[in-house]
């Protein structure tokens, strides 16, 4: 059973996951694909609750997130380290990560992208803006550290349509 909660109510669960082994970004409708992410922000822009996620062009998730205007971020329980490692090293181009991790697809409530039912909490988002990390404006040491080979992230701004927690 899912319970809708306030958008910022369980912020600590998301931050703990991001500062630990990561969370799952799910994109795609027909063949949804979970990708491990370590970077995301949650806040208010344009008077709306917004989650930003960053995806490099080399990811299969990049193709999927650009094909639809929605994404879900599912926050895992602490014991999901193995699945986070798999979804952070294998590509959905080469395998079905939902099947590899024995994840259950759970329908989104306000978006068409599904959740991972085994996760604790789900942010359902609709993309309202995107832009690229711009090397000419990025701090030089960050540029060297994170983009020696280019592959600059695109930043996606998702209006949070609802947050749902497993009861
Ligand atoms: C802890 C962790 C955090 C990661 N965070 C991101 C991220 O925020 N953005 C990104 O583009 N890739 C990130 N990655 C790398 C992708 O998860 C990885 O390249 C994945 O295999 C891509 O899957 P896909 O090709 O199915 O999209 C992260 C990997 C790990 C292990």
From TrEMBL:
Residues 22-163 form the Flavin reductase like domain. One of its GO terms (molecular function) is oxidoreductase activity, acting on the CH-NH group of donors, NAD or NADP as acceptor. Pfam families: Flavin_Reduct. InterPro entries: Flavin_Rdtase-like_dom (IPR002563), Flavoredoxin (IPR052174), Split_barrel_FMN-bd (IPR012349). It comes from the Bacteria. PANTHER family: FLAVOREDOXIN-RELATED-RELATED (PTHR43567), HYPOTHETICAL CYTOSOLIC PROTEIN (PTHR43567:SF5). This is Flavin reductase like domain-containing protein. It comes from Candidatus Wallbacteria bacterium GWC2_49_35.
